[in-house]
Amino acid sequence: MSAEIKEKESAIAFGQKEVKLLTDPIDDDNPVTVQVLGVCSALAVTSQVYPALIMAIGVTLVTAFSNLVVSSLRKTIPNSIRMIVQLLVIAALVQIVEMSLGAFAFSAYEMLSVFVGLIITNCIVMGRLEAFAMANKPWQSFLDGIGNGLGYGFILVVMAIIRELTGKGSLMGWRIMPEWYVPNNLMVLPCASLFIIGVMIWIQRGRNRKLIDIS
Amino acid sequence: MGEILNVFIKAAFVDNMILSYFLGMCSFLAVSKSVKTAIGLGLAVIFVLAITTPVNWLIDFYLMKDGAVVPGVNLVFLRLILFISTIAALVQFVEMVVEKASPALYNQLGIFLPLITVNCSILGASLFMVSREYNFGESTAFGIGAGVGWALAIIAFAAIREKLRTAAIPAPLRGLGMAFILTGLMGMAFMGFMGINPAEFMK
């Protein structure tokens, strides 16, 4: 009985450990620059700020809720079909996000249509399911999902600001750079975003020495 | 036959999944520390691509095309879910085989073995096959070609990274940071293949 009460109390706790779950993925355990997850979509949607922002929100929601659902089901999923179950949960959630975008934010939906579907194959969602939700309680998993979504969104928005400013000379579609600035088309190519992530990792690890890998 | 060879070469080099489309980057960057692991993952990806692409073609042609099952019913909206289920089932199978056959490789690949499911290049290959309207033979060749191209890229990349281990790179840039910049450079080099049409050489 007492164990049950304890379980219930810890189920919605918000202590130091939970705050760490939210803040860790933004720097120390960032999904893109440290765990190397979700790189493909980070290359694809960051040539402008607006789609990057919408994509970050969508991924955060899908990661958080799929973590919650799979974590609640984790004891009943047989190991031999767990991937199919996980993907069905993800696909259903992505479908919901896609339909609500179509209903409430149609311009964003038109800009992003293909990439919203591709949230299904965003490694962050399934990576966190495999690495965290399958072994932890629902509430913690939910927070972990939100934290990882925020960390991903942070990288996405910073990259999109750099790329849109230098590649198009604008931000959110408004011209920012002065008239004499000639947009650098290289920054719109996917290659440029690889260089930008490389430099971001350089800066992050220069500041946060414990992330440096020796090999 | 020439057409099939053409599709194969195009998929492996000109339209290389990693270096031209930048699909399947996550496992490419994370599992390329040693050539041995890279070969293991490369073979797994070739296997999965070579089977899922033709199987998804069959599913698409016999189940989802306009009026394929019931006249007047178009099931194309189910495409994404059915494709990903095929892929997930096959990857689950590969995972069980690798776990039994080579526990060492299983441990090295870690989380990136189940993540072959969400390797964008695999779902991407199935979707490209639909959008380019390949027939059955062509989509088989396309699947194998895309897998071979992916494996070649990751093995070449792992070889470069092994050499880089002795290079004098600033400590924070070592490993992952350099890997990203290197991929960008390789991608720019592969832009040189753009616009080459293998069919013209075979005339």
Quickly describe the structure.
The complex is a heterodimer of chains A (215) and B (203). Chain A is an all-alpha fold.
Description:
The complex is a heterodimer of chains A (215) and B (203). With 215 residues, chain A is mostly helical. Chain A has one domain. In chain A, helix 2 packs parallel to helix 8 and helix 4 packs parallel to helix 7. A two-stranded antiparallel sheet of chain A has the order 1-2. In chain A, a hairpin with a 2-residue loop joins strand 1 and strand 2. The longest helix of chain A has 30 residues. Chain A contains nine helices and two strands; from the N terminus they run ααααααααββα. Chain B has 203 residues and is mostly helical. Chain B is built from nine helices and no strands. Chains A and B meet through helix 3, helix 5, helix 7 and helix 9 of A and helix 2, helix 4 and helix 8 of B.
Topology:
The complex is a heterodimer of chains A (215) and B (203).
Chain A: H1 2-11, H2 16-23, H3 39-44, H4 49-73, H5 82-104, H6 106-117, H7 123-131, H8 138-167, E1 170-171, E2 174-175, H9 190-207
Antiparallel strand pairs in A: 1-2
Chain B: H1 2-14, H2 25-30, H3 35-64, H4 79-101, H5 103-109, H6 120-131, H7 136-164, H8 176-190, H9 198-201
Helix pairs in contact in B: 1-7, 3-4, 3-6, 3-7, 4-5, 6-7
Q: Write out the strand line-up for the largest beta sheet of chain A, numbering strands in chain order.
A: 1-2
How far apart the termini of chain A lie comes to 50 Å
Structural classification of chain B = mainly alpha
Helix content of chain A: 55-70%
User: What does the largest sheet of chain A look like?
Assistant: 2 strands, antiparallel
Rg over alpha carbons of chain A: 19 Å
Taken in chain order, the helices and strands of chain B follow as: HHHHHHHHH
N→C terminal distance of chain B: 13 Å
What is the mean pLDDT of chain A?
Answer: 83
* Helix/sheet category of chain A: mainly alpha
Helix content of chain B: 55-70%
Query: How many strand units of chain B?
Result: 0
Based on CA atoms alone, the radius of gyration of chain B comes out at 18 Å
Beta fraction of chain A: under 5%
Helical run tally of chain A: 9
What is the largest interface, and how many residues per chain?
A: A-B, 48 and 45 residues
How many strand elements of chain A? 2
Mean pLDDT of chain B: 84
Question: Unreliable segments of chain B (pLDDT under 50, ≥5 consecutive)?
Answer: none
